[in-house]
What does this fold into?
Amino acid sequence: MLSRSARFGILRDLVVVARPVRLGGPFFVDRFEATRADFERWLDSDDAGAADRLAYLDWNRTGEPELPVVGLDLKTARRFARWRFCRPWRVDEWRWVASAFGRHRFPWGDAPRTTWANSAEFGLFDFSPVGAFESGRQSAGAYDLVGNAGEWTESPSRDWLESFPIAGADAPLALRPLLECARALDREPAAAPWRGVPRPLFPLVAIDDVNLPRLVVRGLDAGMPDARRGDPAQVLDSDVELRMPRDRRWVVGVRAVADPGSLVAALAGVPDAIDAQETAALRSFLRRHDVHALLRDAWRRHPRAAAPPGMVERILVEELGG
It folds into this structure.
């Protein structure tokens, strides 16, 4: 069987998360936080460079491959996730999964359980192997949604953006190009991370990859979420904090996430031939009962390239239809 850390190995651990279309629709999430073994496999690929390897050695102990990888900046987290056909979370996606689809305070229910997550209350104050807290998840769902490594998201803070000083005496005229750009972005699937952000600021958010802080899901350094009442999908805000994109704190890693459209596009974009184990892993994933219809619909909407299809694209055609 293909190792999970292999590029196509992640497919068997992608969990389908049901979500209403009005909230963004269904998506895939990795059952586990990215591990050192996963990340080291990327470092061995042609996609990574010497600088990535040096930066990794600064933060991660040798061995212990089952521990979550940490010390990643946002750019590195993105590149690693993209190599595995995915991307980092958006905070609304994490909140939806971590609140048991908006129903509870925690992934497991409403009662805090200090031994069900590697949070500050547990008292370990070090990383645990991913997936070690079986009780702290929904049945067949993702592990470590609370505690263990922190996780990058692509989402900026709405409050931070609303405080951005762009208003002035000539604001209507000055904002006209931004509003036009915002309308264009609003029509593009790639703009999805910025929904909920004040519309005039869409272009600033999309362009600024250095100075615009993103929300990070806090890990073992955080306590259990506040016991607040109200909308269950909002009670985990205390577990999110702002970090600059170039920040490489020792507690922050990444979890791979993908929507159906971006996943089929990433798979179809693989230019190289794949071996027998990778082929078997891909076909097995595409034939899963919870995956097939979802990706088939996304594949039907995927634009076909004029160039002859590569090996992976041919498999997609065979499994999902032309």
